[in-house]
Design goal:
Blueprint lengths: L5 E2 L7 E7 L4 H29 L9 H35 L6 E4 L4 E4 L3 E3 H25 L2 H16 L2 H11 L6 E4 L3 E6 L1
Antiparallel strand pairs: 1-5, 2-7, 3-4, 5-6, 6-7
Helix pairs in contact: 1-4, 2-3, 2-4, 3-4, 3-5
Amino acid sequence: MKKQHVYESLPAGYREIESIDLQKNKKLAFIVNAIAVVIAVLMVIPAVGALASSLNLSLSELSDGELRGMLIKLVVLVAGMIVYLILHELVHGITMKIFGTKKVKYGFTGLYAFAGSDDYYDKPSYITIALAPIVVWGIVLLILNITVGHDWFWVVYLIQIINISGAAGDLYVTWKMSKLPPDILVKDIGVSMTVYGK
């Protein structure tokens, strides 16, 4: 018999055992954001050293073409960050659909972009949904970093920093869920999640 990964309603015998709401729990939101900053700093430190050693010109020594090139890279970086945020949530949503969700809700709270659902996911499915964007985009961005060459390396690397540090919330819930019993069900409406156990 095929194992069910997602439920449209809570099965009998389950009760709420935990909830996580980064909108309401300011202390937890601070911790998750601090983790994101630490990850970003750890990724930026080696990058700054490498970037500084590769830049021998001051801005006043740059030609018009070089300045134009830097401006184009900056515009691509900003656009890439916005597109990445949308694609990150789309991967969450696509993964939910793969596990059987019929309707995914997308939104933006002003602090967080989200993909959510009214369904209940088993533990392995929920962890897969949480980690899917960091894995998918981590691999895509790594391949791009290897193939784009030195000129565009830093643009892609900065988006990779956003990919990994921006997934601090996903990494936190993965760690949290990994410590809970194997038969839990998780309802993630996008801005908060509730965990149910037997």
